[in-house]
Amino acid sequence: MKTKLIFFTTRSIIVALGSCAIILSTAFRCDDSWDITDDEGLGSTNQLTLDEYFEQINEILYSDSARSDYNTAKEVIAAEAEGYLEQFKEASKLNVPDEVRSVHSDLVNALYDQYISNRSAAADTPDDLEATTENINAYSHYTADVGYARDDQSGAGCNLEEIAVDNNIAFDALGVCEANTGTQAEGKSIGTEENPVNEIYMLHDLIPTEGSETGRPNVDGFEYSSITAKAGVPINIVFDNRNPAPFVFNICVYNGNSERVMARQRVDGTFAFAGEKVHELSLTLEPGTYTYVDNVHPVAMRGTLTVVE
Question: How would DSSP label each residue in 14-77?
Answer without folding.
Answer: EEEETTEEEEETTEEEE-TT------TTTT-SSPPPHHHHHHHHHHHHHS--S----SBHHHHH
